[in-house]
Amino acid sequence: MVVGVVGFPRRGKSTFLSRLYSDLRRRGQSFFVQRGCPDGEGQWTFETENGKSLRLKGEFTRDFVEWVIRSTRGLSERFERVYVDLGGRMSEENKRILREAGVDAVIVVGESVEEILEWVRFVKSVVEAEIFAVLSEYDDGRGEMIFKPIML
């Protein structure tokens, strides 16, 4: 199963995936987190000191998109689930990844129901997939991001 993770920039997609990664590893699940956006982030960003300051942003080139599609398809043959971080743009590149990488389900991370519904419309215009939604917000008391699943 291939699960796309989408939402606008700086809404918590990478943080959500980092926490999911840690939780699934603890449970011994068969999965892979594929970074399908050229923002230079990966699990190392969260596991190293000053990781975010070291990342190098890239571009959504044709070669990059084709690599994401090819590698995601290959990974889906080896793992029960592959989570693909598609980045924060409703772009032709992300449409192509959703369509050609075999995405079966999508998790939308957003700060409001309105934002989430924008992404739901975008995803539905491209593929038929199960869609799940997660509201993200900062816990002012602790300064960390929290996530709340919501029903669509």
Quickly list its features:
152 residues, 6 strands, alpha/beta, six-stranded mixed β-sheet, 26% strand, Rossmann fold
Brief summary of the model shown:
This protein is an alpha/beta fold and 152 residues long. Helices cover 39% and strands 26% of the residues.
Characterization of the model:
It is a single chain. This protein has a single domain, classed as P-loop containing nucleotide triphosphate hydrolases (Rossmann fold, 3-Layer(aba) Sandwich). The protein contains six helices and six strands, in the order βαβαααβαβαββ. 29% of the residues are buried. Strand 5 and strand 6 form a beta hairpin. It is an alpha/beta fold. It starts with a strand and ends with a strand. About 5% of the residues have low confidence. 39% of the residues lie in helices and 26% in strands. The protein has a six-stranded mixed beta sheet, with helices on both faces.
Oligomer: single chain
Major sheet: order of its strands? Answer: 2-3-1-4-5-6
Per the principal axes of the C-alpha atoms, what is the gross shape? globular
In CATH terms, the superfamily is: P-loop containing nucleotide triphosphate hydrolases
Q: Rg, please?
A: 15 Å
Any guess at the CATH architecture? 3-Layer(aba) Sandwich
Percent helix among the residues? 25-40%
Number of helices: 6
**What is the CATH topology?**
Rossmann fold
Distance between the termini: 21 Å
Poorly predicted runs of 5 or more residues: 40-46
The structure class reads: alpha/beta
CATH level-1 class: Alpha Beta
Count of all domains: 1
Number of strands: 6
